[in-house]
Specification:
single chain; mainly alpha; 3-stranded mixed sheet; 9 helices; about 5% strand; globular
Length: about 200
């Protein structure tokens, strides 16, 4: 799979999706605890614009809490930019291979695939996750210590029903689409309650 091509396609798709939302939908709570759709959109502009110096300062301000630092920066950008500006920023860097400090090649793709669902599902809207990128993202998340999936899913064997993919060991099996398994692996169990054994 061409990761950058898949990422570009997902970025442009998210930009189009956001462009089609009504004003009030931008203020709806996303699947990210405490984040609105607007906050998530702002967060999605960050991966190609974040610098090492900015990250270090943000982590210091957040007293070492990575999640707090990310949320604070997303909210700051959401307050500073209009909807049109945020969408334009996503489109402008759709083909960029620049990543946030410490991020691997698949991390921006994971971000866009998962956050696309974070904004669509609470709005009752459907976003199809392309299967090959979803499987690549799922394998990456399951194997990465950063996402905490192995700890979160200890004792579970995950089996994709729409792709030749499985991972994990344990007496309990969880079967679902690669998209739903990816949401589960990234800590969004509330979005896919039908997957919980």
């Amino acid at each position: 799979m061409d990761i950058l091509a898949a990422l570009k396609a997902e970025r442009l798709s998210i930009a189009d999706f956001l462009d089609g939302l009504d004003d009030h939908e931008w203020d709806v709570a996303s699947l990210c605890d405490g984040w609105t759709v607007r906050d998530v959109a702002a967060h999605l502009t960050m991966s190609t614009r974040t610098t090492l110096g900015g990250t270090i300062k943000g982590v210091i301000r957040a007293r070492g809490d990575w999640n707090r630092m990310t949320a604070d920066e997303a909210r700051r950008l959401a307050a500073r930019h209009t909807r049109a500006e945020l969408i334009a920023q996503i489109r402008e860097t759709a083909g960029s291979d620049r990543r946030a400090p410490g991020a691997g090649p698949l991390d921006p793709l994971v971000d866009f695939l998962v956050h696309g669902q974070d904004i669509a599902r609470p709005l009752g809207r459907s976003r199809t996750m392309p299967i090959e990128p979803a499987v690549a993202a799922l394998g990456h998340v399951h194997g990465s210590a950063f996402y905490g999936a192995r700890k979160r899913l200890r004792g579970l064997k995950l089996i994709a029903t729409d792709a030749d993919w499985q991972a994990g060991e344990g007496p309990d099996e969880v079967r679902g689409s690669a998209a739903d398994l990816l949401l589960l692996a990234t800590g969004r169990a509330s979005a896919v309650p039908h997957l919980i054994p």
